[in-house]
Amino acid sequence: MDILQQISEQIDLGDDEKVYELTATAIEQKIPVKRILEEGLLDGMNIVGKKFKEHDIFLPEVLMAAKAMNAGMELIKPLLLSGNIPMKAKVVLGTVRGDLHDIGKNLVGVMLKGAGFEVIDLGNDVSPEKFIETAKREGAQFIGMSTLLTTTMPVMKEVIELLRIENLEGKIKTLVGGAAVSKSYAEEIGATAYCYDGSNAVEYLNSVI
Amino acid sequence: MKAVLDRIKQGEILVCDGAMGSLLMDRAKEHLKGTCPESINLSHPEIIREIAALYIQAGADIIETNTFGGSPLKLASYSLDDKTEEINRAAILAVKNASSKNIYICASIGPSGKLLKPFGDTEPKEIYESFYRQIKVLVDAGADIISIETMTDLNEASLAVEATRNISSSIPVIVSMTYESTSRGFFTMMGTRIEVASKRLEDSGVDVIGSNCGNGIENLVLIAQEHRKHTQLPLMIQANAGIPELREGVTVYPESPEFMAEKCNGLISIGVSIIGGCCGTTPAHIRAIRNVVDQRGKKLLKT
Ligand code: B1M
User: For residues B301 and B286, what is the distance between their CA atoms, to the nearest angstrom?
Assistant: First the structure.
């Protein structure tokens, strides 16, 4: 089995030590970082994501897989950053106030970084003010918001309204996603784009910059 | 007042209250900005008292305290952990002062919000100590029942049971789990089946097993049925008023009091001992459930 496949398999098994070792070996073998990320780490997470959706596995397995992916990411991150490709655009990313779900948001962050975007991750439970202050301070062109709870969806609307009040609508674009959000809800609140997963978010960003 | 477990053993069905959160939002929206619902116990106890009184008027025998997120681990995210004692004590007092009627004060204990190692980064000891500190205050202040609810991780629930038992060997303990409906049946978020939960909770020495949240009444009838197959312990069921929908920016719970109450007949047939409501239910829901329980309960006692 090729080493990238092995990385993917060990992510599925949730073995962070093996993923760390295999990633280190892959880097030594001069396999391009982008391939290690996409065909190894993210491929593993995709498999895990599919199994999770089909209820073949549950949260413990997903969390172990995410830990394993992070072990590999640790090695890759500096290389992604030092790559000679200039960063394409800045994205302020976070899960909205009142919501602590961050597994999906983290995955989206990894995919965006992997695709060459600079991601400022504010974590979870992020207030509308914090999203906007950070975007202004950092000169970010995009704010990415995630939420999985029906009850916290209106916070996304607050952010968009605050941008309007501050005359930043259009200057700072908003991406929304997460299990509770739909395309029609994104349209209703006036978000710039709805993205159903990380690669969709990458596709969207690549199409507008 | 007769002990709650004795009344259950004699076949009585007890009614518990409904949601706290939505009533609190209506009355204390501006006080809730940037803080947690439990802080209202200290800042505006009269609101908590009023909500408890509404549920008592609606016919609830058991009133839950506003302490779901009152463990120091939870309160810490609002920098209120050093107020754990005051907040939990005030919650008991608010229910005590709500009415002169005899009701049972049921202390609500929600998840710690942390994930245990190895999946998360929290040691069992940390979660145990957090539960212990909260439950100790609640028991000392006069709770009649401890309800460890909305649990998805059996290990976490067991830590709360252990903490309770180390504080009091006699106080009735309820553990209520939250299940998701999947194509392969009901599971908690952590992947636990009803059968497994029933067995483990029985072994851990709880007095009542239950399920709350996550589902509307119809799924909770199915969950109760499944529980009944695997345990002889009394059951407690608190359904949401359906799954929340967002209509024009407002969260709406779709199940009406009449709809839920009618379906509670299913719970009574299964032999559920305590029936209440979770997210989205109101005093009107509890009144409707009270009526159904009274009608059916009388029949059951006769036969
Ligand atoms: C910016 O652009 C973008 C673009 C795309 C974006 C994006 C942003 N963000 C996400 N995406 C998209 O890309 C990702 C990759 O494909 C995807 O991300 P997702 O996040 O959707 O997918 C992840 C990869 C995997 N999915 C997940 O990680 C979520 C899984 C489930 C099981 C889940 C989890 C894990 C948790 N939970 Co919670 N949880 C559930 C979930 C039920 C389920 N089976 O899905 C859900 C979301 N939870 C729910 C609830 C109710 C709760 N949870 C709670 C707590 C938790 C845990 C802490 C235990 C844990 C979170 C751990 C963590 N660190 O994230 C509580 C809330 C706490 C809070 N304030 O946030 C609590 C309220 C339970 C309680 N009563 O205490 C339900 C929400 C119901 C609703 N619609 O409102 C729920 C659907 C379960 C259920 N069936 O009831 C896409 O959506």
Answer: 21
Pocket of ligand 1 (CB under 6 A): A 49, 59, 98-105, 107-108, 144-146, 148-151, 175-180, 195, 197-198, 201; B 111, 150, 180, 189, 213-214, 244
Tens digits of residue pLDDT in B66-84: 999 999 999 998 899 999 9
Q: Of all atoms in ligand 1, which is nearest to the CA of residue A195? A: 4
Q: Which residues pair with B303 in a beta bridge?
A: none
Total Cβ atoms within 10 A of residue B162: 16
Report the pLDDT averaged over residues A54-80.
90
A77 with A95, same domain: the answer is no
Chain B, residues 196-255, CB within 8 A of chain A, namely: 243-246, 249, 251
Range of the domain at A181: 90-208
Write down the mean pLDDT value for chain A. Answer: 92
CA-nearest of B72, B52, B50, B53 to B64 is: B52
Contact assessment for residue B267 and residue B221, using Cβ atoms and an 8 Å cutoff: yes
Q: What is the pLDDT of residues A126-180, one digit of tens each?
A: 999 999 999 999 999 999 999 999 889 999 999 999 999 999 998 999 999 999 8
Cβ of A58 and B187 within 8 Å?
yes
> Taking CB atoms and an 8 Å limit, are A64 and B249 in contact across chains?
no
Instruction: Confirm or reject contact between B182 and chain A (CB < 8 A).
Output: yes
Least Cα distance to B95 among B140, B139, B65 occurs for B65
Distance from C-alpha of B221 to C-alpha of A64, rounded to nearest angstrom: 33
Place of tokens 């549950």: A58
- The verdict on A144 and A168 lying in the same domain is yes
- Looking at residue B73, its pLDDT comes to 96
**pLDDT digit string, tens, across residues A23-43:** 999 999 999 998 999 899 999
Cα–Cα distance between B233 and B172 in angstroms, integer?
Answer: 12
Count of the separate structural domains present in chain A? 2
Check whether residue A97 and residue A170 sit in a common domain: yes
- Which pLDDT value is given to residue A84? 54
Question: Domain B4-302, what fold?
Answer: TIM Barrel (3.20.20)
| Cα nearest neighbour of B191 on chain A | A58
Gap from CA of A149 to ligand 1 centroid (Å): 7
> Looking at per-residue confidence, does B87 or B245 come out higher?
B87
**Chain B interface disruption, residue of A57, A64, A127, A151, most B CBs within 10 A:** A151
Regarding an ipTM greater than 0.85, the answer is no
* Whether residue B302 has pLDDT greater than 60: no
Amino acid at A164: R
Determine which of A16, A17, A57, A58 to mutate to test the interface with B (most B C-beta atoms within 10 Å). Answer: A58
Closest CA to A145 of A111, A110, A193: A193
